[in-house]
Amino acid sequence: MTKIQEKKQLLDLATDFNDFVAKNGWVSRYDIESDALSITIPKLSNDARIRYFDDEIAFYITNNNKVEGI
């Protein structure tokens, strides 16, 4: 994936989240123990790691900076 495609994908995620989720087949999960909601690709890559941006928001990001969930 080129840098331009990566930037477009991130902009799509930020500007039209509902359509982005539907188009990319992301699924939602809720963890009752941690009271956490996540929306990710169906199976995260082995190198996807959670990176927090504040106390409430985090992204699942791969080593090559691909966003696989929030």
Give the topology, please.
Blueprint: H1 3-15, H2 17-24, E1 27-31, E2 36-40, E3 49-52, E4 58-61, E5 67-69
Antiparallel strand pairs: 1-2, 3-4, 4-5
Task: Please give a structural write-up.
Helix content is about 30%, strand content about 30%. A 3-stranded antiparallel sheet has the order 3-4-5, with no helix packed on it. The mean pLDDT is about 90. Strand 3 (about 50) and strand 4 (about 60) form a beta hairpin. The chain is α+β, with helices and mostly antiparallel strands. Helix 1 packs across helix 2. It contains 2 helices and 5 strands. It is globular. The two termini are about 20 Å apart.
Cα radius of gyration in angstroms: 12 Å
Strand-pairing-aware structural class = alpha+beta
Task: Kindly estimate the percentage of residues that lie in beta strands according to DSSP.
Answer: 25-35%
Write out the strand line-up for the largest beta sheet, numbering strands in chain order.
3-4-5
Give a quick precis of the structure.
By secondary structure, this protein is an alpha+beta fold. The protein is built from two helices and five strands, in the order ααβββββ. The radius of gyration is 12 Å and the shape is globular.
